[in-house]
Amino acid sequence: MKFKTIEWKGDHIRLLDQRKLPQEVRYLNCRDASSVAQAIRNMAIRGAPAIGVAAAMGIALAAKKIRSNRPEIFRREVEKVCHLMGETRPTAVNLFWAIERMRAMLDQFQSEGVEGLKSRLEKEALRIYTEDLKVNRKIGENGKILIQNGSGVLTHCNAGGLATAGYGTALGVIRAARDEGKRFHVYVDETRPLLQGARLTAWELIQEKIPCTVITDNMAGSLMEKKEITLVVVGADRIARNGDTANKIGTYSLAVLSNWHRIPFYVAAPTSTFDFGLFSGRDIPIEERAGEEVTHIVGRRIAPGGVKVYNPAFDVTPHSLIQAIITEKGILRRPFKKAILRCRVNTVVK
User: Fold this and answer.
1) Which residues are catalytic?
2) Any long-range contacts for 219-228 (C-beta under 8 Å, 24+ apart)?
3) I need a surface site. Which of 93, 107, 148, 245 has the fewest CB within 10 A?
4) What pTM was estimated for this model as a whole?
């Protein structure tokens, strides 16, 4: 990778500010947990795996700065930070998965005292980071078989290195196929309202010299009808036990279009994105964001003042519209419920 999304620096966390891309490559130095939480909330860092890593690092950073040596006070302060991180964004389950892994350290190693727990929390945050890198590369290796020479690949939003610790999920599949020598073209949905496709995915693909074309979100159907698009691969923020998948708003529309045109629709995600407590996508909490994201582009108003705005950040694609889910444990196919339960992993890696 020619850039780093997130780095642990010991006394602070360095984040690539994704709000500034592609015009400016600028980094944020977060020196406390509140600044990390703010970066997640305002989408300076975004993407389900990436915000999980950021939250874990933010918890570890806060723990290092707690001065009390009394275990009960230390635990109470760490719990406050866990709660703070959990309040940032509600849909991406990787965030809560990472927080629970950090919480588990408090129970598993409570006998080691405050200094021991600080060390354990830091090591766990770094483990979550390195695991994510390995998992993404495995997703890419597993999924590259789905892309053939001459394919027209459509992707939506950003599921690349910027959305993860590095390499990416959906873009990981694309990178792995390129590295194998396959020649194909990537179509990038601009992804309104925040343009993560046009700003971020296109930027990543240009860095990697992978041929790509940005299209507006309402052009996909036309290109499918012309047979320019031969498969769709997207990321995910939460996947229910039956395979229903929450991803960036507009994903559901693409899945419907893909099925109408008999084009395979794939989801690429780590198993940490599975929510085994939800039986279907109906129960996935959907984040609603500020109306200004829709009424303004780059700070400039494009809609009349006083107009009402509906701005859900995600939608849910039913499992019946998904051809397969690409994970680090393999390519899962219908019936997804059995396949997902077979690859269930423990919350804590011991």
Assistant:
1) 237
2) 220/154, 220/187, 220/189, 220/253, 220/254, 220/257, 221/257, 221/261, 223/152, 223/154, 223/187, 224/257, 224/258, 224/261, 224/263, 225/261, 227/152, 228/152, 228/187
3) 107
4) 0.95
